[in-house]
Amino acid sequence: MKTSSRVVVGMLLVVSGAFAQSGPPPEGFSALFNGKDLSGWWGLKTEDPVVWMALPAEELVAKQQASLADIQQHWSVAGGVLVNDGHGLFLSTLKNYADFELLLEYKTVPLADSGVYLRGIPQVQIWDSTEQAKFKLGADKGSGGLWNNKKNQEGKNPLVLADKPFGEWNQLRILMVGERVTVSLNGKLVVDHARMDNYFDPKKPLPRTGPIQLQTHGGEISWRNIFIREIEADEANQILASKGDAGFVSVFDGKSFAGWAGDTNNYEVVDGAIRCAPNKGGNVFTEKEYGDFAVRLEFKLPPAGNNGLAIRYPGSGNPAYAGMCELQVLDNENPKYAKLDPRQFHGSAYGMAAAHRGYLRETGEWNFEEVTVKGSTIVVELNGTVILDTDLSTITEFKGKEEHPGRIRKGGHFGFAGHKDPVAFRNIAIKELDHEK
Question: Which residue ranges does the chain devote to CATH 2.60.120.560?
Fold first, then answer.
């Protein structure tokens, strides 16, 4: 897959000198803590952000205002340092964030237990790695892990023990794209692009946006140099493309339809992308057929744009029925589609399985999507978040009660199912998985 590592590499090389003591934010970052007071923060406990973010505006403001007395009691500022006494509500940013890079420093005491909530979801763990009573919980492995992930899941335990001795400042760097999280503690990689579980509802993905939250309990903890940098779409896509790309082979040369078949006259190559010609349609697909595979690509939707990914397509017929499925590519936030069946929204296996909504980028921006097909199962990850994880062999109810005879196909072509809209696709790469069985 064609990717660039310049942004990713540059992002990793944060100048340590600018992060060693209280001072201005590094270039590109803004300060979450002003070093003087609690401006920009309010108080929360462990609460599902989806619930409180859905409150009417007046109720939310009232909830925020009611928390201020508690945080004033348990949080203080001295010498540019934010200090909590180990009690009370957790600090939460008033602003919500999507994809970001977060830098902060903390210093704590023996037996303390803390963490950083990402988008309001617990948590990047901070604790006493010498407390033997908590070794059975993983304290001996150190801080920085995604502690609320399932047992033995990637990211739950840090890759290395990187905590500094008590009395010294620890430096955390957290990178979050979609539900993918990378954590460095004191310059050592402790979590590498791991998916973070939704603590409040494991069957659902993380919310698209949410606050940064500083958890404290069990002992005093101090914080300083809390800086954040919001990550835009192009950089986020580069980060996602740079991870786990081994084995992916480009199937589009960016210049022609070499290696492709079907209705190529109804598509065009524009600026290195395959695009359905306006008011044209039909199916284009790889000449090669695939059994189990993963595909990575970027796509861009025009307003109300509609297309689809043809999965294990036989080369003729409607991909949604003759093929294993058509995975929707759709600007489903457009009012034109307000009354669709949920199984027609973006990422859904058309007419069979509904994907989670709310994870598309703004219309006109490039989205990054990875689809993994193994046997009768399909996983769709959009912009770093899994929006569909289904087994088509188990589905018995279909939109319009129309059967999908191709859903149990074991092989076929990969392609695009155009619907007269200029939807564009680029950086298309496929990894064959049959050998991994």
Answer: 6-237, 247-436
